[in-house]
């Protein structure tokens, strides 16, 4: 029969005291980040799992971190990147002896109602916020109540409350444009998310900034917003290709829009990677399944998940911004 690893064995292997291991599990804010990371690595290596029931009675905690699933329109679409993110987040949380509690947004009344109910019932010890919107009320509301939380994303407020981690979408779009300019393109269109979408607007800003820096002239006329990113089916690309001076390259705010452009280009007899270049964002698994394979910007999902958990436990305000990686494939061949 398999014997469970004890807290004392973790302490011995890590070369720290029993109290330090206990702090890593129950009061991580008391430890230096390097010490905390080392102890967590040993916990993962030995497969140590604390007795959640005993710890909950002792500390009046639930060992659960709340996570609100995306809205129905997002959840109803195929989103492999979100699956990767949730898996990485679950692994990072479980390494600290806790688990994610998934819940959905309230369909009636205030969106904060479900957060209020979970806190009142002592169901969670804190929250990992995702699907952050411009001027999102959740960070402010949680900060005012001294509830531990961390945001994956930026609200756009000058002084965003609480810690946050985000992907620099503007820097990613900038990379894409510079790659295309290097390949000789001078008419680079952008397939954007609906106007007002925080993530889409950030990526569009990076595209526009890079086009201006490259001296490509009036680029805004080549910005096309989709009406619905989950049901676009190439419509935004068709509109871009119908412009008086059609683009020789397209940068899309996500892979779904980029992949939709394949049909739109085929309808006009354009060969992707030869007559026109296409670049997506998110580097979804489908990017390598299409022909030609799609050049895309890959988000550092696992690292972001680890940093979110670390920032949740440190509770220090301020944010961290990470650039995506441009993965060049045949769709953007010079």
From TrEMBL:
GO molecular function term, any single one: DNA-binding transcription factor activity
Start and end residues of each HTH cro/C1-type domain: 6-23
Membrane-crossing segments per the record: none
InterPro entries assigned to the protein according to its UniProt record, in alphabetical order: Cro/C1-type_HTH (IPR001387), HTH_LacI (IPR000843), LacI/GalR-like_sensor (IPR046335), Lambda_DNA-bd_dom_sf (IPR010982), Peripla_BP_I (IPR028082)
Coiled-coil annotated residue ranges, if any: none
Top-level division of the source organism's lineage: Bacteria
Alphabetically ordered keywords of this record: DNA-binding, Transcription, Transcription regulation
CDD domains per record: HTH_LacI, PBP1_AglR_RafR-like
Keyword DNA-binding set for record: yes
Domain HTH lacI-type stretches: 5-59
Cross-referenced PANTHER family: HTH-TYPE TRANSCRIPTIONAL REGULATOR GALS, LACI-RELATED TRANSCRIPTIONAL REPRESSOR
Name of the protein in its database record: Transcriptional regulator, LacI family
Source organism per UniProt: Actinopolyspora mzabensis
Lineage summary: Bacteria, Bacillati, Actinomycetota, Actinomycetes, Actinopolysporales
């Amino acid at each position: 029969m398999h014997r469970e690893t004890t807290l004392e064995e973790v302490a011995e292997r890590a070369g720290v005291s029993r109290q330090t291991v206990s702090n890593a599990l129950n009061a991580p804010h008391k430890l230096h980040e390097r010490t905390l990371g080392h102890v967590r690595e040993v916990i993962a290596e030995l497969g140590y799992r604390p007795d959640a029931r005993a710890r909950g009675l002792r500390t009046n905690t639930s060992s659960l971190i709340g996570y609100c699933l995306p809205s129905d329109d997002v959840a109803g679409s195929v989103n492999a990147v979100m699956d990767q993110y949730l898996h990485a987040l679950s692994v990072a949380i479980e390494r600290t002896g806790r688990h994610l509690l998934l819940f959905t947004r309230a369909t009636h009344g205030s969106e904060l109602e479900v957060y209020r109910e979970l806190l009142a019932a002592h169901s969670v010890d804190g929250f990992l916020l995702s699907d952050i919107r411009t001027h999102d009320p959740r960070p402010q509301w949680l900060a005012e109540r001294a509830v531990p939380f961390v945001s994956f994303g930026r609200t756009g407020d000058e002084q965003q409350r609480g810690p946050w981690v985000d992907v620099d979408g503007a820097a990613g779009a900038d990379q894409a444009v510079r790659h295309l300019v290097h390949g000789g393109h001078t008419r680079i269109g952008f397939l954007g998310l609906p106007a007002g979408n925080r993530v889409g607007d950030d990526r569009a800003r990076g595209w526009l900034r890079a086009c201006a820096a490259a001296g490509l002239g009036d680029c805004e006329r080549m910005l096309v917003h989709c009406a619905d990113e989950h049901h676009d089916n190439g419509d935004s690309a068709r509109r871009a290709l119908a412009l008086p001076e059609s683009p020789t390259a397209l940068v899309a705010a996500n892979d779904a829009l980029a992949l939709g452009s394949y049909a739109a280009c085929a309808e006009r007899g354009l060969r992707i990677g030869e007559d026109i270049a296409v670049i997506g964002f998110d580097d979804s698994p489908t990017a390598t399944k299409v022909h030609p394979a799609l050049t895309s910007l890959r988000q550092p999902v696992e690292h972001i998940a680890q940093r979110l958990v670390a920032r949740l436990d440190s509770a220090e305000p301020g944010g961290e911004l990470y650039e995506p990686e441009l993965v060049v494939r045949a769709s953007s061949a010079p």
